[in-house]
Amino acid sequence: MPKRKVDTKGSTTYGKAAVNVLLKEESKPAAPKQTSKDDLQLVLQSFRLLIAELCQQFGMGHPGGAIGMAAFGVALWNYTMRYAPHSPDWFNRDRFIFSNGHACLFQYANLYLSGYKAMTWEQLLSYRSERPDSLCPGHSETEHEGIELTTGPLGQGISNGGGAGHRYQAPSCDVQSPGVRGCEQPYMVLEGVGCEALSYAGHLKLNNNTVMYDNNQITCDGSVDLANTEDVNKKMETCGWEVVDVMDCVNNVEGIVAALEKGRDPKRTKTLFINVRSIIGVRSAVAGQAVSHGAPLGKDKVAAMKKTHGWDTQKVFHIPDKVKKFYEDNPARGEDYVREWDDLLVRYTKEHPDLAATFKDRMAGKLPSNWASMIPSALPSDPTPFRKSNSMVMSRIFAECPTFMVGTADLTPSVNVTWPDYKTFNAPDVTPTAGKKGSYKGRYLHYGIREHAMGAIANGLAAYSPRTIMPVTSTFFIFYLYAAPAVRMGALQKLPVIHVATHDSIGAGEDGPTHQPVELAALFRAMPHLEYMRPGDSEEVAGAYVLH
């Protein structure tokens, strides 16, 4: 086979010529050793046609991206991710966060094929339907087993992954070793929140965090180079990520698996970015074209796609028995993972009984039973700035309850959410010129001037496991306008995040109208499921925490 003339960089010079090269080479997929190439070809074809038909049935949906990522799904759900379809909340599972939520059929179909009980065939067929019991809306939501976070607004999911990548550090025993696998498309590295979060994740060097970049070079309006010509690989390397290229992700399951396995190497010192080249709407009449992004292919084109694959054009929603068999071992393998980890936890409990007790309380989302008694009984009655009252109320709780991870967007001296002898969460080999040296055991995060990412990362922390980590963010109220989309996403998911907004009135007059958030109360009060509290004195500050 001649050497590919495909761009090896992350830039948008990878385009139509590269698509044509990949299409010509799509004869037989590169299969892992235990799988025949013919069987894998059948699996990929079945998946692509299923996506095309699901979008066609109600005349809406986003088929192209999901069709193009068929090989990703096989690599993730069949060969690399540790998960348990019949124990979907297993604590030590890998977390898969699908940032490009509009292509959620990719996730729904893989959940069905992999054996998640709640994702029945009838549920899968309810994609974008008007059924009141449908769990398959046009953007994935956390109500469904196997979906870690609600994504939709671009850039949120990739930012959530930075939060989910913070992990519990247990000595002497690898009692917790989940990986975080994220999937994004070209739009995510353009969104401001995505850029903020990718920069911060690279700085933190979380070696259990992997991003798969679906480099199909297409957006809704056209090709990516319509609006962006940066070299993505160089951008990510500059942000501190390790970059791995996989050239043909139309068929090269083996190559994707090899790249993902790098993310399991405990000796890695950087966060992993896998630049995978795919073709949107592959093997359809509109392969590589923007028209396949956000609209059904059309009945004639779906029929033509079946004919291209050598399938009976009269069969609808057909999944061959060989394809079902390909996935049938996934639930049993998942239960093996659960049993192995349960045994490990038993050994850990014997070796570290005190730490194990704390760990189990954290898994259960328990705060110390006496946490409310840590709130001072005597609070000032004279007018006191909210940030000072908040510090008096919460500093002891933050110090003594390891559940809380607290952080600010570069306003530590102003918002007063630290506590005596707090430890910073940071890469251990980072020695700041000014400020505290940190480690992964710290619980105070310096987000930098990244308000939007701060809110989205906090959502990822909270979603890791219910109340195992209780994130607290803080900045001036006016700057929560930058974070508002992330605050809204957290509220929609009812995630237990606390946002502490200071300097919240026209009383901050000396800063001028730019810092007077007179309109923001209405915005945040209107957000569904957001508890908006504006305490008027120190006692009401204490009451707000008790109510929460």
TrEMBL record:
Entry's Gene Ontology molecular function annotations: metal ion binding; transketolase activity
Gene3D superfamilies reported for this sequence: 3.40.50.970
Domain spans labelled Transketolase-like pyrimidine-binding: 384-548
Annotated GO biological process: pentose-phosphate shunt
InterPro entries: THDP-binding, Transketolase-like_Pyr-bd, Transketolase_BS, Transketolase_fam, Transketolase_N
Keywords: Magnesium, Metal-binding
Coiled coil: none
Keyword Iron-sulfur on entry: no
Keyword Hydrolase: no
Cofactor: Co(2+); thiamine diphosphate
PROSITE patterns: TRANSKETOLASE_2
Matches recorded under Pfam families: Transket_pyr (PF02779), Transketolase_N (PF00456)
GO cellular component: cytosol; nucleus
Record protein name field: Dihydroxyacetone synthase 1
Originating species: Paraphaeosphaeria minitans
Origin organism lineage: Eukaryota, Fungi, Dikarya, Ascomycota, Pezizomycotina
